[in-house]
Each structure stands twice: as structure tokens, then as C-alpha cells.
Amino acid sequence: MTCPHFSISVRSRCNKRTGVRGSAVAGAAYQSAERLFSEYDGRTKNYSYKHPEVVFSEIMLPENAPPEYSDRATLWNAAEKVETRFDAQLSRGIIAALPRELSFDQSIEMVKEFCQENFVSKGMCCDIAVHDPAPPGHNPHVHIMLTMRGIDENGKWLPKSRKEYVLDENGERIRLPSGEWKSRKVDTVDWNRKENAEIWRQSWEEYQNKYLEKNRCPERIDMKSYKRQGIEQIPTQHLGPAVSAMEKKGIRTDAGDLNREIRKANRMMFSIRNMIRKLADWIGAVQEAWKELETEAAAKPKPVYLGDLLLAKLEVRRNERSDWNRYARTKGSIRDMQKVLDFADYLNRNSILTVSDLNEHLSEAYEQTAVIKTAVKSAERRVNTISGIRKARKDLQETKEVHDQYMKIGWKRRREKFAAEHTVELQKYQKADRFLRKFAPDGGPDEAALTAETAKLEKEIAAKSRKLEAMQGDLTALKEIRYFVKEFMPEIAPDESDAERQPVSIREQLERNRRMLQEKEVQTKDLQNMKTERRPEL
Question: In the chain, what are the domains?
Fold first, then answer.
């Protein structure tokens, strides 16, 4: 099954907001599952234990790059050495899923062609690594690391930007009140432009579809979001390796429960939309048939009443039972009459008298479904955020003592030793602190407010879900009505003699027919009683 996953990120030496340090050498060691030495911090980055899942790796260089950059450690140590800022951007990373329909050689060929056209030909050094974690074939994907600076004709790194003086309309430099010349910073390469992400995603989509077509696979990739594709569906959340492993072991998680609820809502909405489409198609076909009949019968159009269709169907069912015995005919007629009465009651309660009314009712149901879907999606997203706030506060409280001890240590070696011994607690503290800064700045709402908000949101979600179920019940009733009269509709022709008659209430017509059937049933019973009285005693 094809997967449109394609994520782009930039690795920086230090994140200004979180303070977390990054290393291009560490990133290269991770994706290639190798042991590399970082000259910047003097540490060895060892990820050789991941080697079984790396099935291919290669470095692709532009024409001006020195040949020694084909060595992974040399390339990324050089890329880090040229960066002097404490928060410099070291590399760009791309992770993309590979189609499982392609063979190993086809996937490698496709990745190399994509990188050559989009990155290497533009002057970037490209480090490729294809992963296929156990079990093999279930999640093949490619990691791509790219350099952030261009290389000149002498094999030297170019600056990321250069200074350019601003000129006036006469081509002269402009002097500022401070005495300095007015200038601006100009990027030497255009690799950081936001529109590149769209270009690369589109190119990756085209390459995958080209190779799928070459391999005669019917599947195709579309990298656009559900919204841009016009698909009204709630997207599920990415679980990540840890949560996915827990779910596979049968351990329920909040993210897994949320995805299950989203899939349930999507299935329900898909069913509703499918019913609406089928009913709309049926109504359109009936309208076309009636237009043809009305054109032939009279120039003046008149509405098509569903009551007339139901009564006509009753007459057809009565004729179909002409060869039955009297008791079976009467019983079948009563059963059909009760069904039609139920249909009429539903139609009257919802003010659906004509085919046009039914069409409007369906359109309104479709709009309400879209509104409910948006509300449920927003509420569930907020419930998930509140759950994350609670967990982050708990984690922060549990690890605060260790973090405070770490901050009090002044000696570097003692500080590093303490951090190595308490890595899990410190990372847990930093993760919780980042989450709360984002979703609960300045302390955020207290626990009582979060509990009240969660209860309110859960009540809202339950109410919306019940409303969706009620709408599905309405559509089921409409489907039954359609099934009851669909075979008869094309055979109905308007009566020219009744062209000007006023429409009679559906309830009145059905009650009149039921009384006639009850009178016939009474007459039948009287006749049977008379035969019993005349039978001679043995």
C-alpha cells in the first residue's frame, strides 16, 4: 500500500527556544548506522547497532565538491567546522516513505534520480540511507541529509549570505543618518525558500507515480492533504515508534484511542455520504423520467407527490397477490398498509411531500454532517491537548528534583556525569517543559478548569455522535422508502384528467384504503362463520 509521508526538517547546532544541541555528524551516524567521530565536540557517535535495518547508503556530490567528501565523516565534520554561530543551521533532513510495490533496485534508482535532479544538480551534497526495519518490507523509507552551503569552483564552502548595498534611482548608494551606507543581506543560494518544500513534494510524487506506472502497479500517490484534495475526512494522528509498539502489544494509549474514534467517525460519515449520493442519484433519475412524462402528457408541470407513488406501489403489490388465497391476500395487504403508514408518518413529520422536498432534505443532511464533523474534530483535538497538559505537569513534578540538582552543579565534568546518569529524567523534564510552554504558557488553566473543560468537551462529542447516529437513522428510513417505490417510479404516468385536481393528504388516502381492507377482512370472516354454521354434524 502506498504512503504519502514526506517530512522536511532542519538540524541546528542549538535550538534557541529549547536549548537542545544538534549535530550533523550524529545525524549522519544515525541514518547510516555507523560509528563516526565528531571533531566539534570530540565525541564518537555510535549507531552501529542499527546496522541491520540500513539496506543502502551512498553520498552523492556536485561537480565542485572535493573528492574526499565522499567519506561521510569528512563531509559532515567539514560542514560543521565552517559554521561558527552557536545556533547555526547544520543540515537539512528529509524522511520519505518508499512504495512497497517497487522492488529494492527500483526504489534505489528512483531515490537517486530524485536526489540528482532536485538537490545535487543545484549544488548540494546529498547523503542517502534507505531503512527497512524488521519485519522486512512493512515500512521501507529513505533518509536524505543535505548540506546548507554552496561550494565554489575551488571546492571551498560559500557564505550563506552576502552584503549588498541598496541603490537609489540614480544607481548611487544611500547614506543613512548614522553615516553608514544602507545595505541588505542577500542569500547566496535559494535552498531555504519555503516554496522549495512544495516543489520537492511535487517532484517526489511524480517520481513515485512514474515508477509505479513503469512497474504496472495500479496504485498512485497524491502528496496533497485531504483538504487540498477535496476529501472530507478527519486525518489520524501520527503515533510514532513508541506508541505503535505499545499498540501492537495490545496496550491502549490516548493517541491510539483518538485514532480509533476518528476512524469510527470517518466510517460513519462515509456511510452517510454514500447514502446521500445514492439517494441523490436516484432522485435525479426520477426527476428526469418525470420530466419526460410531463412533457408528453401536459405542458404545465406539476409536482411528483411521494404519497401517489406509495399508493401506486400498494396497488401493484395487490395485483401481484391475485393468485393467492383470500386469507394470504388480506394478511399481505395489511402488512403493506402498515409499512406505508409508517413511511407516511415519517414523511409528514419531516414535511417531505414531494421528490423536490426529499432532495432538499438530503442536501441539508449533508451540510449538517460537515458541520458536525468539524466540531467533533476540534473538540477531540482539544481533549488530546488537555490530556497532554496533565501528563506534562505530572512528568514535570516527578523530574523537577533531578533537574534542580542538575542546575545546581557548577563543574562541567560532574554536570556531564550527572546528566549521563539521569538522561531519562532530564529528557522527560525538557519534553514536559516544552509542551507546557507551547500549550499552557504562564501556568495555563488549573486542574479544576481542565477537568470542567474536558467534561464539557466529552459531553459535546457524545451529543454530536448521537446526532450523527440520528441522521443515519433518517437516511436509513429514506433508503427504505426509496427501495419500496423505486421499481414502480418509471411506470407511473400523470393522469391528464386530474391535471387540475388539488392534492389530497397522504394520511387521508392511506386511512381510506385501510378501512376498505378492514371491511373486506370482516366480510371474509363472516363468510367463513356462515360456512361453519351450515356444516352438518357427523
Answer: 6-160+194-223 (3.30.930.30), 267-364+486-522 (no CATH), 384-481 (no CATH)
